[in-house]
Amino acid sequence: MDRRSFLSSLGLVPLVTAMPSEAKAQEKLSVGKSLSRAAQAGYLPNVPLLTHHGERVLFYDDLIRDRTVLFNFFLVGCPDGLCPTTTANLRDAYDLLGDRMGRDIFFYTITLTPIVDTPKRLKEYAENFSIKPGWLFLTGKPEDIELLRRSQGFADSDPERDADLSNHTGMARYGNDNLERWGAISVRSKPSNIASTFKWLTA
User: Which range marks the domain in which residue 164 is found?
Assistant: First the structure.
């Protein structure tokens, strides 16, 4: 099975992939621990991030490994107003998932403008939506955020369009690293549709 076929089976077919050297460098952060096939291939890079609580975490080791997750990218200063709408939508999906949130399902929302979206700014944004435990807003170094974005295929093949952050995707990645099951869903879907995607992510 070639690389693209493997990714297709996981629902991870990026338009622009991470460079092998970048993937290898990220794997070194998980020395001594087993990696899923997707992590080994560089599609879940173990970059360091900061939560809206100011805590340092590693994307793969701390947020993805052994968990069922959904993560998306957004802008605090969203020019078209769609990001607040999608955050509210995900907030409704969170409520539908009930006590599974923060126990065996976790949401992560990653800023595309890490230079201006500090943990403090993300915390203020999260508080405006009454975000509860089990959902983190994340920032980090621009190059690490960019690696994450591209590793998920959330990039446009047209460099000019890709540079315009207002064109960012309205998709979220969801899955379970242990089960090697991954998919994508629009964050503008009905909250009930988003919540229902987790029914098949059980051992």
Answer: 3-200
Burial of 176 (0-12, 13-18, 19+ CB in 10 A): buried
Residue type, 61: D
pLDDT in tens, 180-195: 999 999 999 999 999 9
Nearest to 123 by CA among 140, 136, 107: 136
> Cβ(119)–Cβ(139) under 8 Å?
yes
Counting the structural domains of the chain, the total is 1
CATH code of the domain containing 93: 3.40.30.10
pLDDT tens for 150-163 read 898 877 666 666 56
Q: Exposed e or buried b for every residue in 39-64, given b needs 16+ CB within 10 A?
A: bebbbbbbbebbbbeeeebbbbbbbb
Q: What stretch of H or E contains 54?
A: none
